Structure formats: structure tokens, C-alpha cells
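Ticket 4471: requesting a sanity check on a complex prediction with alpha-D-glucopyranose. Repro inputs:
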Amino acid sequence: MPALSEIKREWWKEAIVYQIYPRSFQDSNGDGIGDIRGIINRLDYIASLGVDVIWLNPVYDSPNDDNGYDIADYRQIMTEFGDMNDFDELLAGMHARGLKLVMDLVVNHSSDEHYWFQQSRQSRDNPYRDYYHWWPAEKGTPPRRWSYFDKESNAWAYDAQTDAYYLHYFSEKQPDLNWENPKLRAEIYDMMHFWFRKGIDGFRMDVITFISKHDGYPEFEEKYQGQHMIDIYAQGPRLHEYLQEMHHEVLQHYDIMTVAEGPGTKPDNVMKLVDERRGELNMNYHFDHQGIGVGERYIINEDFQNLVEFKRVLTEWDEVFSEHGWNTIYLGNHDFPRMVTRWANDSPKWRATASKMLTTFLLSMRGTPYYYMGDEIGMSNIKFDRIDHYKDLMTINWHHLTQAEGGDLNEFIESHKITARDNARTPIQWDSSEHAGFTTGTPWLPVNPNYTMVNVAAQEQDSQSELNFFRKMASLRKQSMTLIYGDYQCLFADHEHAYVYTRTLDDEQLIVLLNFSEQSVALELPMAVKDSALINNYDHVDIDGKTVTLKPYQALILNTLA
Ligand code: GLC
Ligand code: CA
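Returned C-alpha cells:
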């Protein structure tokens, strides 16, 4: 176990990241869509949370087929969100408050409305032709590639203008960029320098593990069909060559942080991305826990809150980084449901307590926490009961596919009440006025009706609220080198309701006790503990000798006497 003096300290290891999905954060002009001015108006709130880094989802010019993940111009701001002056003001406002800004880098694909693609599809000899992946129709139907968002899950789209198919792992309006072309890579690096010269503090790299494609687009083995295609997409032969080049050309020149969105990353391959001796990226986030109990097209099964499996996955991932690299911890983001619904209990009785328990978890693990906006007030899933309430193309297209196959639509709607992405995209609940103070117009996605009870304004007034609990927990983490760097050990690995772990650094040891269930849990600890809690989401600690009894969804952090 390394001592603090032997650990390589970095600002991004000690940071708490707070994610803002701009469309749903705060509208400033009444069009129902959150915007940059809205974020500027809320900067004091953001600073008051005690977070360090803001990850902002894409704000670049986009026709919004996939809410900004289809970029038409990497150097312009989306008109709905404002303009470059607003952006510059936002960045300055963050820096003035000691906050850093991490932007989304979406370079596996662009929009089909990007100038490069408009050119590329013109003719087979256009200078931009090789900025994308094309398969000439005279070679026959291209080898099967599976797409996430396509209505027929086909990742090749036929384009009559040049009698060829282009590749799109996501929607038809998100053609994949051809990283094999050095000219394309140079354009991307140049664009990254543009943003770093403005002073941004890092990039979160969208599906970056998919950028390298297999030469000649071979047929893949049968086992990689459907959902499993992800595993081979992430194994392109030149992924690490490209990332090392990017590091050399761009990243090494700035004091910034990088984090991969890493579909297909596993404990046995992630070090290639984040081992600092290789010069690629700083961090990665994986999908292993999100997949627990969730099948094809996000249909859930009885395992979706299997705590033993959850602990196994997170403990395995912690071990990977015991000497090199650095972990990330998250429970939700704009692609997953609200954490309290997914991982705990959003009933009126337990929602607040359970949210605080999950906040304790996120801010007491080893690894940089990525905390999603709105979770600090315990927002929960909206649970649409009709497909026409959804805005997300993924849900809509999967519903369409299920219908076309004669599948079980009722099961689909019920599962998506738990798993659909729009659950995390409803507007932030600022106060109890109409539309929760998010907009004076009609919100692009409805506000969760629980906003009259669950909102920032009410929680500001209540010292025991989820919001004030978050602030307390954030400040505890910031002050505790043990919570940031300490060794992690999981206890009671097979316990179905409690997640218990120690964090140890030099001569300090903390124990984190979390009850993930509605019933009381008594645990006989292997060591004695102090009975004064550093964190507690109840007002009482029940300790008798070495036995600690946790109330439903209780979260405790104690000093051990080991
Ligand atoms: C990432 C984004 C997601 C987007 C997809 C395609 O997974 O987080 O929101 O739909 O990439 O860009
Ligand atoms: Ca607006």
C-alpha cells in the first residue's frame, strides 16, 4: 500500500466532476431549451456545490439528430445555445470561480450536414471522399455492421449519388469519420488546439474506443453480432497508435485532463488506454456496472439491482489501478437513468435518504467521481408511459424495431421507465413555479411532476436536504487525502444489502457503510470503530461493540480504531 508521499498527485485525481447537459440545465430566453446564458446565470449555484470540474455535453453547431452528438461545425456554437461570445463568457466565469471546463470531443463521427460529408458524398474523387468510410455498391452488399440508432440496426446506408454505402455506427445522420486518413487526423488535432488555445481544461472523448476500423471491413465472427459488436468495435487495430499520436501532437502541450467514454473497455484491456507510461489518456469510464440486469434494447431482468454483482464489478475495476492509471466512478449521466431510480429507491418514502446514500458512495470511492446534474437534489425518473412522449431517437428506434419484429411492446415501455435515456434529460428542477423555473416557455422535454416537492429552492432552505448533504460530502472528500488516494478494500462481498469498504492511507483508516435496502442490516465488523460519524444521512448511529446496525438506505463514514 503506497504512502501519500509516494503517490503521484494530480489535480484531476483530486477533482469532483459535475456534468451539465446544457439542453436541460437552464433556459434564459423562453424557447424551452437550456442554453449557455442559462448556465452563466447559475454559475454561483454550481460553485456553491464544491465541485471542481464541469463536463459540458456538446454545445457545437448541430442539427440535433442526437442532441448535439452530430456535429456540423466543430468551431461554432449551436444557435439554440448561444454564440461564441457567450461561450467565452462562460469559460471566463468558470475560471473566475476556480472551476475548470471539460468539453465533449465527438470525433468518431460527424453530422451528415458537416461540410466534409457534404463534399465527401458529391463524387468518388472528391478531395473529402476519404474523410469517411465508403463501400462501393459494385462490390455487393457490405459485410454486416450493427448500428445503435438505425431503424433497421444496419450501420451501412446506401447513398445513390455515388452508388456507395457509408458507415454509421450511430444514426444515419452520424457518418463515421475515417481516422485512417492522416488529413482527417490533422484536421481533428488542429481543432483540438483551437479549443485548448481558448483555455479549456480537457476533453471527454465520445466513443473514442471506436475510431479505428478494421482494414477492408472484413466479416466479423458470428459472436460479435447484435449488442456484442461493441467488443470488436473497440478493438480496432490502430486505436492506440492514433491516441499516442494525438497525445504527441496535442495533449502533451497543455495542463489538461482527458477521459475516454470507453464502450468495450474491460479490466484486462483498459491499461492500454490509461497507463501513464504509454502517453494516451488520463482516465476511462466503462459500462460494466450499467449492464447489470439489462439486456438487449435495455430490457431489464430481476438482476438489475443485484448488489453482490455490483460490488464484484466495482471491486474488480478498483484493483486494475492499484499501481498505474486512475479510475473513474459514476452511476448516471445523460445516457443512463436517474441514479436513485436505477440503483436504489425513488418512492416518496425513501427517495431522499437513498439519494444521500448514493452520493456518499460516489464521493467515497477511489477514482475521480463524475456526478450528474440534478442528482444532488435527488431527481428521479419521469417514467413515460407512452412512446410518443419520448424524444430520444434511440428509444424511438428500438421501439420501432421491437414493433416490426412483433415483440412485447408492453415489456418495452415498462423496462424503459427504468432504463431510457430521457429519464435523465428532464429539466433541472429549480423551484416550485411553473416548469420548475427552468423556462418561461414550453420545455423541450416535460419537467418531472415531482418538482413541486423536489427542487433546488426548497432544498436551499433545509439544512438536512439532499443538496446540503451533497455539499457536506463534497467538502469532506476535498479535505480527505484518505478518501481520494487511500487503498480500497471491500468487506462482506457476498452481503446482498450492504456495501461496506475501508479506505486506508498512512495511519488513517475510514470505513464506509452503505445500506442499499429497505430493511435494517446488522453487521459485525472485524475491527472497532469510533462512534462519531464523519457522514451520516440519519441523526443517529447504532453501534454495540463491533456491531453496527444500519437503518434503511443509511450511509455512514466512521474512523476505525485499527
Ligand atoms: C455517446 C454519447 C451518447 C451519444 C453517442 C453517439 O455514447 O454519450 O449520448 O448518443 O455517443 O455520439
Ligand atoms: Ca433557450
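Notes from triage: The chain has a mean pLDDT of 97. Leaving this open until the requester confirms.
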